[in-house]
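Rotation project, supervised by the postdoc (A.L.). Task for the rotation student: set up a whole-complex structure prediction and record inputs and outputs verbatim in this book. Inputs entered:
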Amino acid sequence: MRFLFPLGLLGLIGIPIVIIIYILRNKFNEQTVPSTYLWELSERFFKRRNPLSGLTGIISLILQILTIAVLSLAIARPIFVLPNTALEYCFILDASGSMQMQSDRETRFDLAKAAIEERISDARLGSTYTLIHVSTETTTAYERLSDKALAKELLADLTCSNGSVQYTDSLAAAQKYFNENPSFAVSLFTDKTYDAHDNVEIVRFGSDTDVNYAIGDVDGSLTGNLLTAQANVISYTTDETLTVSLYVNGKTTPAKTADIAVKKGEATPVTLTANTDAYDSFRLVIENEDSLSFDNEIISYNQQSEAAYSILIVSETPFFLQVALDVYTDSKIDVIEPDAYQNNAGYGLYIFHSFTPDTLPDGAVWLINSTKSVANSGFSIRGIIETDDPVELVKSDSTSTTTRTLLQGINGKDIYLSEYIKYSGMYTKFTTLFSYNAHPLIFAGVNALGNREVVFGFDLHKSDLPMSTDFEPLVCNLLAYSCPDVLDRTDYVCGEDVNINITANMKNVKAISPDGEEIYVDNTADIGVLHLERVGTYTIRFSVSGEEKNYLIYSSSPDNESNPTLKGESFSLHGTQQYERTDGEYDPLLILFICLALLFIADWMVYCYEKYQLR
Amino acid sequence: MKKLVIEEAFLSELEALQTVLKNNVAGMFGGNRQTKNFGSSCEFADYRDYIPGDDITKIDWNAYARFDKLYQKLYFDERQMHTKIYIDASRSMAHGADSEKAEQAIKIAAAFAYLSVCEMDKVSIYVMRGGQLEEVVSGIVGKDSYLNCVNKLNEIEFDGDAKISEAIVPSPVGRGDGLSIIISDFLTDENFERAIDRLCEQKRDVLCIQVLSREEINPQMRGKMHLFDSETPSRFFRKKIDQDVVRAYKDAFKFVVDRIKNYCEARGAHYLFTPAHTPIADVIFGNMVDLEVLK
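Outputs recorded:
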């Protein structure tokens, strides 16, 4: 036996105090009465005394002593050790999207949490609880926790994801606990069925008869003023006629509705059209009710206009560049003579060829054959080297991501120069793409203004690069680097990572989830990653040069999470299950309180017997 | 003790009552109280043969015409009764915050006194203090006298002890001339029976009224008690009072009540036990009427 609060035993000091009070109070009370005649006369009528009457005082004292003793014990919280009665529990809670399917207005996830809570309640005190939350990321909510209340509280805080989950990490974690203690009772609370689940108890929720439909694989195109929206719909458990509606540009009345006959388990294409001059988005919805609502709609966003930017070329001989850029971009390209350059603003990319501006503009910049140092460029110029014989550019063999991206599809051989610029003081970290004799001649990085910068340390006309087959892919790669599209696409599946191309002048990059949660994206790297955990529309918001921009993407439900009768892979633990229990504990607090109540009642009964009974 | 307050309505109601006397009244003065003797009242009683020398105005001439013989008409006599009320003025009667016993005793005395003066009887009220009788009101007749004197009851001091027999037996109690009322708690060793005997011997109607408080009737005290007698501080009772002791007390109480009651009944005297908290109207219009002291 141990005590949680041993200081509570100090309450036993009350026992001698009660005894002292009893002794001090056990004296005759003096009182004057009109006449003692009747009292004296009563002696003649006094018969034998009820033996209980003589004991009432001492019984009351005994009851009070017992009350103090029990109360002290209750405060001290004695805990009795019961050998071999407790277990170590490991609950693995599936929080995949399909666990949000509803049966009788309760989701499978809520039912699973209720089942875990019940097991915690029923478990012997002294048992420990480990909970692995298998969501879009597997986390251990708590490990070997023995506090039931805390375990339930933490369990209540867990939420269900919308996406698919990977069980590998949870299985590995459970295996680790099982290896440590083969008597670990591992239970998986899921809605999937597993044929193989050695040493793991599968507690399954949901029914094979749960009805669910889903829509996916959306595609849309605008031809003239006709919007064509395509998708696949599926009914998992029954043959059904599904009503599919098309909503355009966020309108709440459908532009088109169609009934589609769908066979059980077969993806059936559906095509709906609507007349519109342009569209920002369209939404396809299955109107039939089922057990999982969020896989019944899908939205496609059109963001072409947001990706547009313009290019300024400042050059006397822009021919090569203009031709190459025209191939790879639809963006507007302005070309001006160096003399006409007056710090023009408003372009996404500035290309200076054989011209050095006094100050760098606020935007991505290519400095080609800049012979003068310019502030904030991140380098200075030592001089121009003229060679007697042409020198060959050497392609960087770095394996860094940026280098590989920028040199993608480039052979890099047989590119010769007759003149090059030698740089020094490169105080900004640049990625060198080509060099000669360890002198960087084509390099890229971020300048002191925070804008992306590409530097060519030679005149294009004094090299055979423009004539090389590498020129156009190089321009394409550098263009994608300098003015990247913020997003590659707008349709994603919940659980995917969204790569956000971060340009240097992007500030306050954040995403707003369908729940309204703001998720800040790391904008220090070239690519910010957003992990999609919910189904619905995410807004990616950032500011460029003080202007706020919003990009909308749709995170759709994963196909496999829509299937109410999905089978999982094997979920087995290696080893031999043992059934050794650990020492449990018994907290007699309730019994102590019952004893306390009984003692109080008994004491009152004795008191009333003395004071009021038989009057 | 609260001041005695006589309500006019209560007094009016009292006037409807009349005391019932068992013994023939033998007062010296004429009054309203009819006796068994022949006298000169208006109420016809009997006939007897005429004897020469009788008052010829009382000859029944109608009877003479019918029987040809002279008959003398006889009438009842009416006398004045003398009601004597003895109040126990010991300290035990006034014990407690409310002095409810003393208050009740005074109220009863006042009520009986008023009843008597309404019947044109004479009323005397005495208090018994030690072995002596002290006169509070003496021989008042008529309502005016009553109202003038009744306030004296408020001036009675309840103190010391009271010996009923020593006070009453030597006193001139009168003979056959009315009602004697003893109001006391009768919680005494003293031989109060002698006083009852004395009054009965003198052919007076006797009414003993025992007034006791709540605590005396049903004691609530429990535990170890050291009880002092209010009249005699040297006298005490020390015991742990529990249900057994209380049960014995109640037996003793019953014994005392029964003893007085039986003693009174055996001598043709009336006895009434009344809790001090009983409303005076209930005592007079309820208990007394039931006891046939009043009608």
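Student's summary: The first strand of chain B starts at residue 30 and ends at 49.
Supervisor addendum: Chain B has nine helices and ten strands.
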